[in-house]
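Regression test attached.
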Amino acid sequence: DTGVSQDPRHKITKRGQNVTFRCDPISEHNRLYWYRQTLGQGPEFLTYFQNEAQLEKSRLLSDRFSAERPKGSFSTLEIQRTEQGDSAMYLCASRSLAPSSYEQYFGPGTRLTVT
Amino acid sequence: AQSVTQLGSHVSVSEGALVLLRCNYSSSVPPYLFWYVQYPNQGLQLLLKYTTGATLVKGINGFEAEFKKSETSFHLTKPSAHMSDAAEYFCAVSNSGGSNYKLTFGKGTLLTVNP
């Protein structure tokens, strides 16, 4: 169990550029979640997957955001035409579907700065 | 809908003093409750959780929390603060009656520990 990993850890981009983040969950964790955390706030839910199926998306996830989990393992989060308001920490978490396993395990996050 | 309120965005204690971080939740169904800790530029680490059963739950690093349904509270305590406890703490609620188990977080409480 190597934990949840995210890449890159930091990303600086210019407004209007596209960015993509990657998350590798704990192996055999069926559920994968994306959250966004802005300065001084708690994380906010963006979307989640069960295996390769994206089952729910928050209204926070505008059309410029897309997430995939093509083989039910790693996931990518893409932001198109970035805006300064997209600057935040993007957190990935995974969870087992085992009975009584309710907690989510978080990765270190990707900090995005849009200039 | 569910929500979390953390009273006090910043709590300062002396080393060796009692730590008390307050959390109140709102949930239309029995909640699952969590406390996470976040160190600077890192992801979230689970401290403890309440799902069912005993209302006093013990976690890592000497922390514990008590679920009080009548008060809709889940306050976090530690008898004696250490310098290494300085971090941001987030209370979160998950819907036990749903299927997504997404987390709704409070805004966090920054704990500083003075020597």
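Expected vs. actual: identical. Chain B has a mean pLDDT of 93.
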